[in-house]
Amino acid sequence: VDGSKPVVIDFWATWYSLCKMIGPVFKKLSEKPEFASVYFYTVDGDDQPDILDELQVSSMPTFIAFKDEKKLGTSLGAIPKNLLV
């Protein structure tokens, strides 16, 4: 992950119902004006196993935030409700 702009990546799986439910919520979050300076990406874990290994993602959904090429944090499971308000 390059650049100084923050990046949030959603690692998900097509076969997992929680991931399917979170997908639209993640998209809505990415469209909020207060997050206009953040890049949001999704990665299908089944299609990108090497990325999962590299970032040590062992369950889905997993959200990882980066800035300045450094990992800021990881969140497993659902998106925290306070981010959606």
TrEMBL record:
Keywords: Disulfide bond
InterPro entries: Thioredoxin (IPR005746), Thioredoxin-like_sf (IPR036249), Thioredoxin_domain (IPR013766), Thioredoxin_H-type-like (IPR050620)
Domain Thioredoxin: 1-85
One Pfam family matching this protein: Thioredoxin
Keyword Ion transport: no
Molecular functions per Gene Ontology: protein-disulfide reductase activity
CDD domains associated with the record: TRX_family
Family: Belongs to the thioredoxin family. Plant H-type subfamily.
Protein's name according to its UniProt entry: Thioredoxin-like protein
Organism: Guyanagaster necrorhizus
Lineage: Eukaryota, Fungi, Dikarya, Basidiomycota, Agaricomycotina
